[in-house]
Amino acid sequence: MIVRTCNRVAHNNPKTFFTNPGALQMRALRLLCLIWLAAACDLAPQPPQPTLAALPSPPVLSFTATARPTRMPLPPTWTPSYSASATPAPRTHSLLSAEAIRVEANIAKIENRRRVNFSLWLTPREQLVQSATLHYTFPQSGKTEQRRVPLPPQKLGETFKSPLSLSFSIDQMPLHEDRIVYQWLIEAQDGSLLQTAPQTFKVTEAIAEERRDDLPIIPAEAHFWSDFPNQAILSVRLKPEAPIRQAKVYYTQNTGLVLFSFPVRHVPQKRPGEEIQISFVFNDELAPQIPWQRLEWWFVLTDQNGKQWRTQPQFNEYSDTRFHQWQRTEGDRAVIFTYERSAADIAFIKRGTDHALERLERFFGYRLLYKPHIVFYNQPRHFKAWAPPNLADRFIGLASAVWGGVVVTFHSSLEYTVYSVIQHELTHLFQYQAMRDDDAPLWWIEGTASYFEERSAQDYMARARNFVRRNGMPDLQRTNRHLVARDVSVTYFVGAAIVDYVIQTYGLQAFQRLHIALARHTPFDQALQQVIGKTRRQLSQEFAAWLMR
Ligand SMILES: [Zn+2]
Fold first, then answer.
1. Fewer CB within a 10 Å sphere, N or C end of the chain?
2. What's the CA-to-centroid distance between 421 and ligand 1, angstroms?
3. Which domains, and CATH codes, for the chain?
4. Cα–ligand 1 centroid distance for 377 (angstroms)
């Protein structure tokens, strides 16, 4: 029997992984989701396990610097007049250049306290700013609003000390609405206007973290040493104009969806103009680390005058060069890491992964914000050689929104591995982009992932029916987090059958609206009420009647 479970590692044994667990890492680990195999396995027998070939390792030193492709500040559009009824009527002439007021960043993010926050950094260069207004529309309902934003004290040539900022509760969005189209309108002192290009904020594709992209770049030489699984060293050399008082490292493995920052313990104090080196050690003490994860990292520095800088973000991969000659295959939608696989196999994995991502996008109604990494091991034994020892003993797949990817091992056949295991794990990435940890019960999370397995070895509907016939309908209120062996059938098979039932009965739109509601941090039971008009108990009853019909 295949047994799958979601192992909430951080609850069970945090000390094994962390010497200094912080809230951020704890949250990160709760996103781990596993498929693992029970001892009594009725699938195809495991293929023979070859001896690991220890290949000569290339030098561990690697240094790459790639231009940062994402989220550049938007160029403002310069408009002499604005047709909306907003703000004071502009003069039709303008003597200002587009550089007169520089727009640094135009972002909207979702904050933990269920608020959407819009912010804009400005530098008045030739004209002071007279007023700033945010215009926004909810496209489904057509509802439009405009809000004037207070201005901080300003000086020509100086960037505002804090960004223009507006936030409102996510509950102010009309029901089932997932998008806000917004633009800023800045009025200069002479009455002419600067209008930023319209932007769309989507709750299911929103970034929650503050990356400090607004800070100026300080010139620095970046180095990345990868020595998997021991550590990676992130390091910059620079000559600051004033002594650096404080340094923090920032890194993300998925375009800022989850952002980490840690203070740097030792910052060398040297005279202005002398070169200093600032380093940070990245390893398993921060969280269990997978090979080939994509690291985007930078430092934020504060000098003794309180001025802040950031170093140019770098992109690197935490390369595992120990046992295998890994091959990196980058497609439009995912990056796949394999070894000892034929070109035909790699093409098959890539095709299946692209297909899964396209299908999940269609079902969920949103895209992943990042290109996931798929790490493909040929043997459970190889997989275990990497895997942290106190995770489940035998498991075949693992997904994390923190890593922005999945790790799988070959199981049963290439087709099963690609069209079931990878599909299952990719589903978790879609879920954890929109919803937060604990936003939905485990039977919904694992049930949905099982529902999306196209070549599953088991027929979840038949298994769910057998389970309910033998045991009666499980209590969906109680089957939440604490997974015991008996619950596995509930979580995966009954869960998948319920997802199937919801989509068949209420339509794909209901499935999508449920995820929009969860992305808006609506509690699961309230989201069910909003979308299908049923309590969890009512859903359970009507599902059971349908299943046993
Ligand atoms: Zn799962």
1. C
2. 9
3. 29-53+323-434 (3.40.30.160), 76-205 (2.60.40.1940), 216-317 (2.60.40.650), 440-446+455-549 (no CATH)
4. 18
Determine the Cα–Cα distance for residues 299 and 280; give it in Å rounded to an integer.
Answer: 9
How far the first Cα of the chain sits from its last, in Å, is 26
Give residues with Cβ within 8 angstroms of 471, minimum separation 6.
Answer: none
Nearest alpha carbon to residue 111 among 28, 207, 208:
208
Q: Which of 340, 347, 342, 345 is nearest to 326 (CA)?
A: 340
Distance from the alpha carbon of residue 280 to the mean position of ligand 1, in angstroms: 33
Distance 23 CA to ligand 1 centre (A): 23
Sign of the CA dihedral 27, 29, 33, 37? negative
What's the 452 CA to ligand 1 centre distance in angstroms?
11
Measure the CA–CA gap between 387 and 392, rounded to whole angstroms: 9
* Cβ-Cβ contacts under 8 Å for 149 (sequence gap 6 or more): 132, 133, 134, 164, 165, 166
- Distance of CA 52 from the midpoint of ligand 1 (Å): 28
